[in-house]
Write the structure tokens for this entry.
Amino acid sequence: MKIKLQTMDPQMKRVLGWDRKTEDEIETEARTLADFFRQVKDKDGRTLYDRFMDDSDVIIANSYVFFNCMAFLKREDFERTIKDGDKVILMRALAGCGAG
């Protein structure tokens, strides 16, 4: 099956080694979003799971993951089942955009 991975963030694009693209369709046999993140590697060979999860298996504070237009930050959300055509969007938090 194919999962669409997308980012518009310049820093994320550099991490992924995407100079001139903003999305890619990744062929995968992963069953869950966590499996997908463990399979996909950045340009340095590090998995997205290792790059974006902290020691408590929570998405690091300066990153956001959207799965089929739903944002989440909790570990249990990574156990969602994925299917052909699903879309994952990676974003970085914007500095100064918090409520205050």
User: Anything to note?
Assistant: The two ends are 43 Å apart (CA to CA). DSSP finds three helices and five strands in the chain. Strands lie at 2-6, 23-27, 63-67, 70-72, 87-92. The chain has one domain: 2-92.
